[in-house]
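Title: Comparing notes on inverse folding

I've been comparing how different people in this forum approach sequence design from structure. To keep things fair, I'm posting one structure and asking everyone to reply with a full sequence. Here's the target:
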């Protein structure tokens, strides 16, 4: 199956939209294939501000309808307790909200941006999507991450080389309580590094310390900016560590 065939068979769809490379290309493809599509971005404490900004920017670029739905994710004890299957509970809550809103808006089918490179066997979140009957056209049509980046570049989408970005909750070790304060500190620390020119990195929580994980090619840059990094991150974490194995 190709995407044109998928959208010919399913001409009215709602899309769980993150503003990342996969969901942005899927939104582009749905519009290009003539589908009636609406993108839904769920705003929670787990998403940094730049993700919503990117989602708005892409929707404007494509002339697409975008609905922002707010969810108090920290009100769910099954999520904030941060169990091994936290992602299952989170996806169930988020896509459940999208499904309810989409049904009210007249969209019978809900899509997500899972692609053919994603390993669905080891991610609890995909179980939630299956239970909610969420379809993944990119995966169903055999499009890999590299395919999506190439096609996105050809289509002129600014997300073609956007690094994959997992939610802020993934920075907190399993079993450690997730709090608004902790998420804000992680987001601020990552924003500080981004402003210094770093890309494709993570600031992970280790007790009261921040552990920076970065791609190997950027290690010299970390050492060059060592003092600036310490100064920028100290207001949020008393200890600053570097993962020498990198990402």
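Reply #1:
Here's my take.
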């Amino acid at each position: 199956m190709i995407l044109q065939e998928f959208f010919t068979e399913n001409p009215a769809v709602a899309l769980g939209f993150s503003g990342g490379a996969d969901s942005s290309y899927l939104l582009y493809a749905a519009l290009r294939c003539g589908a009636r599509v609406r993108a839904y971005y769920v705003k929670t404490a787990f998403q940094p501000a730049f993700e919503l900004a990117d989602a708005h920017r892409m929707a404007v670029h494509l002339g697409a309808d975008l609905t922002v739905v707010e969810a108090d994710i920290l009100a769910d004890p099954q999520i904030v307790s941060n169990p091994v299957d936290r992602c299952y509970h989170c996806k169930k809550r988020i896509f459940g909200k999208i499904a309810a809103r989409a049904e009210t808006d007249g969209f019978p089918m809900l899509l997500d941006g899972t692609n053919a490179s994603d390993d669905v066997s080891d991610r609890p979140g995909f179980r939630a999507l299956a239970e909610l009957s969420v379809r993944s056209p990119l995966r169903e049509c055999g499009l890999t991450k590299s395919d999506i980046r190439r096609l996105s570049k050809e289509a002129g989408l600014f997300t073609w080389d956007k690094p994959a970005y997992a939610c802020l909750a993934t920075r907190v070790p399993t079993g450690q309580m997730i709090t608004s304060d902790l998420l804000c500190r992680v987001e601020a620390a990552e924003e500080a590094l981004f402003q210094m020119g770093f890309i494709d990195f993570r600031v992970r929580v280790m007790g009261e310390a921040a552990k920076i994980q970065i791609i190997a090619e950027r290690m010299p840059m970390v050492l060059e900016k060592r003092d600036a990094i310490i100064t920028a991150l100290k207001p949020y974490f008393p200890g600053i560590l570097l993962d020498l194995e990198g990402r």
